[in-house]
Amino acid sequence: AEHGGPAEWNGTGETADGQRVKVLGNVGSQADAEAAVAAGAEGVGLFRTEFCYLDAASEPTVEQQRGAYTAVLEPFRGKPVVVRTLDAGADKPLAFLAQEEEPNPALGVRGLRVAFDRPDLLDRQLEAIAAAAADSGAEVSVMAPMVATAAEAAWFAERVHAAGIARAGVMIEIPAAALAAREILDVVEFVSVGTNDLAQYAFGADRQLGAVAELNDPWQPALLRLISFVGEAAIETGKPAGVCGEAAADPLLARVLAGLGVSSLSMNAAAVRAVGASLAGATLDECRTAARAALAAPTPQAARVAAGGVHP
Ligand code: PEP
Ligand code: MG
Description:
Radius of gyration: 19 Å
Keywords: Cytoplasm, Kinase, Magnesium, Metal-binding, Phosphotransferase system, Pyruvate, Sugar transport, Transferase, Transport
Family: Belongs to the PEP-utilizing enzyme family.
Catalytic activity: L-histidyl-[protein] + phosphoenolpyruvate = N(pros)-phospho-L-histidyl-[protein] + pyruvate
Binding site for Mg(2+): 173, 197
Domain PEP-utilising enzyme C-terminal: 14-280
Bound molecules: phosphoenolpyruvate, magnesium ion
Oligomer: single chain
């Protein structure tokens, strides 16, 4: 193995010395939910709800949404599930949502920004999520995508609480939000870093463009530095910060993220066991040492080696 640690995982995400780091699944359908459970995920750190809207000619009713969400939540009775509200925009247009064409859809009205003009759409989704949470018995919390400021986070948290859902959080996927993590955590219950978009916006490199893929490497030390701001804010405020982007699925990077103060990792089902085993093979101190070394490295390749990996 390129780094030490047992190949087996006992099913509870924690470091060798017992620091809890939950190992969760990313899901976007009932099939994903079943795969996550079969893989041993302790819950869900990112439930993408776009599937419910994307092929719909008109907005799905609250009852339709309730049924669709309940089917995904049911395998997680008694377990934590973070439901993300609709992440649509000009790049993922919805048939029933008239949106202006935008020159730069990734920088336009997407994610939570859609709800500023159409709060009724968000409120109906929250009503459906609250009902599905009750139907399924899952421990549901809700988070918003594409949040830039603490004021936006506060606006969202107020609507989530008004819908009867106790735990509101936001994704950290815009660099400004990472730098304002402290102020954001003052107004929500948790945050989760979306490293796919955070890398895209930090490096100014389209995540869908192969020509700039090297910049979107999750081992980029500057990306890790942004995540360290979030981890430090989480430790200071005593509120949890997770990671739910692709970075969380890399077993060695999982140790670095734990060392940066992250307390949950959410990934595709296929990565669950390897990440759980990797965390179990290092103490929190070793994770912190790996994190410090990766942060100080000059390149993504050097960061990986510094954290205990081999040169790719
Ligand atoms: C992310 O941006 O890292 C993320 C998890 O969200 P999505 O991939 O759905 O944009
Ligand atoms: Mg994203």
